[in-house]
User: Fold this.
Amino acid sequence: MTDHVPDGTETTPPTTSTRLPRALRPFRHRDYRFLVASMAASLFASGVWLLSLVWQVIGLGGGPAALSAVTASASAGLLVSVLIGGVAADRLPRRTVLRSVEVVRIVAAAGATTLALTGTLTIWSLAAIAFVIGAAEAFYFPAYSALLPTLVPSGELLAANGVEQTLRPAMMQAVGPGLAGLVVGAFVPGAGLAVATAGYAVALVPLLFLRVVPPLAAGEPGATAEGEPRRSVLHDLREGFGYLVRTGWLFASLAFAMLYVVVIIGPIEVLLPFAVRDRAGSGPAGFAAVLAAYGIGGALGSIAMASRPLPRRYLTVMLLLWGTGALPLVVLGLATAVWPMAVAAFLVGATGAAAMVIWGTLLQRRVPPHLLGRVSSLDFFVSLALMPVSMALAGPVGAAIGIPITFVVAGCLPVVLAVLAILLWRLPRDETAHPLSAE
Assistant:
């Protein structure tokens, strides 16, 4: 994809943009500023929603089984809709998709708030609402990923993806839940749901000011000729999957990512609390410190990658960041104090986030624009589908071979998989044949 900013997009004068730090250069584009403002508010609202949801279930007298049912309903909505979300992102105006997502979230969250504050909310109605919000979320990421390259030049996509990867944990895992905890603690869970509703409403406002991106011209890939019948959704899905399978660098990266998710997510999500308790002799405070280090590492890793040019060996660097970045998991399994666990978690978070910034940029720069929504949704679908598998396997594997050995395997295996992917698919040759300029 060549550098392109749609006609009419306002930017600061060149002399001003060159003085901006690389990580902030996307903010000189008017529509990008609106998009990021909306995303930040949306992530904040989602963070508030998730924590308020937990306490609302508890407030209704539900236990672990009820909470599991509600969260599983949200995940099911996300999983069954994400591929359709990719097709929608490639067929429909992306700003319209994003606006529609926020409208659905506002209506659903407002419904939950009304039922909660009137005392008529039940576990099952909350699960149904969670399903709707999960399904709406499935349309957001593909549309956002496909819209972003139309708002900033390709040389600034790395920085723009770094902004997203920084905002996501900050707003969704820190600021949003933090405020939700204060609101729910001071009032009732329904008040937290009301804050989430307001957050989604705020997220909608900047989207109303996004300018129309010109449609594809006749003859461009993905453009529909006049009189040509609309293809079926299944045809569009097959087209996206076919492109993924026959595109070596994309298939290799996604195949690695599938195995990576299975290998590391379960140990981190399921076994880490027990490692902190049994190996380091600590409790909730120690576990919170390790998680905080992981999140801080992710934010700083995103900023660091966004502040530099795209690596010339972008595929090799990305896979090795993921592969070697998993090695500190060994420390999580073997350490007997919290501080080395925190350092290890920081490194895993930093390298993983840096690799994610590169990955998002590669999708936007190397995947044809008319396929980007579908390819992004396939990437999202793989992660969503395999995370529960990894978490389901972690417990039995940890019980069978021990938590320390499980973390050692989880730390060492990704680097082997990364090297195999690089060599078997000859990714260095692909990088040389398809250089991506930093600017």
